[in-house]
Amino acid sequence: MSRRGERPSPETLATLPVAIDAMGGDKAPGEIVEGARRAATEDSIPIVLVGPPDLVGDTGGLELVECTEVIAMDEDPAGGVRRKKDSSLVRAAELVRDGKASAMVSAGNTGATMASALLRMGRLPGVVRPCIATPLPRLGRSPAVLVDSGANSECTPAMLVQFAQMGAAYVSARFGTESPTVGLLSIGEEPTKGTPLVKETHYLLQEAGGFEFVGNLEGRDLLPSPADVIVTDGFTGNVALKALEGSLRFLFDAMLGVFGTNEETKGAADVLLPYLLPMASQFEPENTGGAMLLGTDGVCVISHGSSNATAMANAVRVAYECATRGLVDHVASAVLPVQEG
Amino acid sequence: MSRRGERPSPETLATLPVAIDAMGGDKAPGEIVEGARRAATEDSIPIVLVGPPDLVGDTGGLELVECTEVIAMDEDPAGGVRRKKDSSLVRAAELVRDGKASAMVSAGNTGATMASALLRMGRLPGVVRPCIATPLPRLGRSPAVLVDSGANSECTPAMLVQFAQMGAAYVSARFGTESPTVGLLSIGEEPTKGTPLVKETHYLLQEAGGFEFVGNLEGRDLLPSPADVIVTDGFTGNVALKALEGSLRFLFDAMLGVFGTNEETKGAADVLLPYLLPMASQFEPENTGGAMLLGTDGVCVISHGSSNATAMANAVRVAYECATRGLVDHVASAVLPVQEG
For residue B268, which residues of chain A lie inside 8 Å, CB to CB? Predict the structure, then answer.
């Protein structure tokens, strides 16, 4: 079912639309369609929505590829993709596979998005398992990325080495990072610390090429990360990422609570908020452009389930930029087969 | 080498001193001795310092148990404990074992602290492996605790069930929590999500007694935690805990940077800081009293390596309170042998 024939050139990809799962996400279709419309009008990005016309409703003038099914947010991913062959997610992935779209974007069921992309676009040659790369903000610098942030609960050392290679290719393509640095998430700097998976991966990363391995990092190094790419298994990565999200939200809420204490604090907060909000916005998932699935033969952006129009517009921009910069070619070249220890 | 004979009663423990590793921590001995002195004078807690007299220097009038060696912060824990039988850490653990101290406290080498406690005090009957419980702040409520936050990189389901039992006993003894609730750290609410370890543990926790199992929690639930006890393996727990620490520090620093933008923001910050600092102090490790080793036959508090006098005084208070409330008896009663799946 995977891609047949040559991958389109970046020039061709620039002319193809980004396929958007109009029914994916907690705020679909309203905010999704609105975000797509913004990316189309403000950035002249070619767009095609995918969804059942009666559910999508007004497309705001955007083209709609019609289908009949939707995979729900809480539906079993593998089963949903297997049963719902005419769902918006599966059809969006097929558009990329068939050279009719440059990339797909969904804020829907994360597992089903991955499964659709994997089953329809296929894996790049040599890739053991695709992974998810999620940006981690660094104030005043391009973000770092965390790989794998949730695709694979169970990993081998060889998989983690490939995540590093794909992550490095991604930050090069997306942020123009030259000579990307890679760190391995562990519980101490020493190569002897951590699980057997981490210890073996540490050794393999020292031997691997394509990036500069800076050694082990710890949880406290995630914000701001000293390395451009932080490698971990998808279980640890998902827990760590959500811990960061949760703690930042907790602290913002606590701060806002303090600001509302009395008239004096409210007045002082009015002075500070215009300065604090731009800083805080760098931490908002809606401004980071979503997570990128790496290792499939086509670009797939996984946007936050809570995505609003701003988040969707940013995700579409990231998808379009990465597709037209030849992200998939970069990742394909970066992945080297690794012998397991 | 472990405890001989009966465990001292809470009444006896209240008369015994807390043994403090005077040479443990980045700021030892100065801040450690000062913190010990404060706990002694302000709270009338009986104290004994342990360390080489020439290195400890002025004890501020506190009793010193003399020894000749110190295990360095970066020394191999197992090797250090094996070789340095007259080190401050090993001797502190022996004082607890021999019924001459109610508890031990160290801000030194975490691995060596655990190894000293484990090898000298011994494990409680039936305990597969001790674990570390670290408090997670909940504004306006008693903290939750994360177990294991770093003692065991590799865990079995049976170990995680015991961590839950020991964590529940700890929050009962320390915070007076009745009917503690326990959550399992995973990457989704569904019992089918996560690693094989998590899936098997989920099943066992549903069957286990001694607490109310509320199901899986995610990284974003750590602050504030809906459960009194969050159970995970020591690798994930350590990464998550340090991720929280790092993100809170990152955001505070970013906020302080914004406050210093100009005269107007500085003025507004002067109004807000008296309200923000008490809130922020709830997140400071120095105010949480350190982490507790659970499962050893004696109380052992592991204070942050960066502990100052305040942190040490709080750690001593926690150690004394837990010892005199019979924490070890509570934990011993809570741990049930579990059949592996």
Answer: 267-269, 271-272
What topology is assigned to A1-126+295-326 in CATH?
Answer: Isopropylmalate Dehydrogenase (3.40.718)
The answer to whether the CB atoms of B238 and A221 lie below 8 A apart is no
| Residue A260 CB neighbours (<10 A) | 9
Cβ atoms B190, A74 nearer than 8 A: no
For range B182-205, the mean pLDDT = 95
Residue B7 buriedness (CB in 10 A; 0-12 / 13-18 / 19+): middle
Asked if B247's CB is within 8 angstroms of A247's CB, the reply is yes
Size of interface A-B (CB pairs under 8 A): 162
Q: Per CATH, which fold does B1-123+295-326 belong to? A: Isopropylmalate Dehydrogenase (3.40.718)
CB A150 within 8 A of CB A110: yes
Q: How far is A40 from chain B (nearest CA, A)?
A: 33
Please give, rounded to a whole number of angstroms, the shortest distance from the CA of B270 to a CA of chain A.
9
Q: Output the CATH code of domain A128-286.
A: 3.40.718.10
Both tokens of residue A52?
A: 């059942």
- The confidence score (pLDDT) of residue A281 equals 78
The domain ranges of chain A are 1-126+295-326, 128-286
Cross-chain CB nearest to B258 (options A247, A252, A279): A279
Rounded-to-10 torsion of CA B14, B53, B24, B97: -40
Q: Do A276 and B258 touch (CB under 8 A)?
A: yes
Shortest distance between the Cα of B109 and any Cα of chain A, in A, equals 12
pLDDT in tens, A180-222: 999 999 999 989 889 999 999 999 999 988 899 999 999 999 9
pLDDT in tens, A106-123: 999 999 999 999 999 999
Strand, helix or coil at A232? coil
Judge: A267–B272 Cβ closer than 8 Å, yes or no.
no
For domain B128-287, the CATH superfamily is: Isopropylmalate Dehydrogenase (3.40.718.10)
Looking at the complex, report in whole angstroms how far the Cα of residue B296 sits from the nearest Cα belonging to chain A.
22
pTM of the model: 0.94
User: What would the pLDDT profile of B4-33 be if each residue is shown by its tens digit?
Assistant: 568 899 899 999 999 999 999 999 999 999
Amino acid B341: pLDDT = 46
